[in-house]
Amino acid sequence: MILEPQKRISIKALTVWRISSVIKILISWILAGVAIFLLHIFNGPFWISLLLIAIELISTYFMIFLLPSLRWRRFRYDVREEEIELQEGIFIVKRTLIPMIRVQHVDTVQGPILRKYQLASVIINTAATAHEIPALEESEAEELRRLISNLAKVADEDV
Amino acid sequence: MSEPKRLHPIVIVLTIGKRIKDLIFSFIALLFIWNKGDGGKLLLFAASAIAIIGIILTSILSWLRYTYRLEENELRIEYGVFVRKKRYIPLERIQSLDISEGLFQRLCGMVKVQIETAGGSGNDEAEAVLSAISKEEARYIQEYVAGAKNSSETNVYEEPSQIVYKITPSQLLLLSLTSGGVGVVISAVLAFLSQLDDFIPYEKVFRGVEQWVVSNLILIALLIFAGLILAWILALFGTMLKYANFNVTKTEHDLVISQGLLEKRQMTIPITRIQAIRINENIVRQWLGYGSVSVESAGGSASNKEGSKVLLLPLVKLKDIEHILGPYLTEYQFTSSFTSVPKKAMNRYIFRSWYIVVPLVMVSIVFFKVWGLLSLIILALVTFWGVLKYKDAGWSLDDHQLSLRYRSMVRTTVFIKKNKIQSLEMRESYFQRRKDLATLEAFVKVGFGGAGGRVIDMDRMDVRKVYTWFSREAEKRV
Question: B18, B27, B236, B380 - which has most CB atoms within 10 Å?
Answer without folding.
Answer: B236
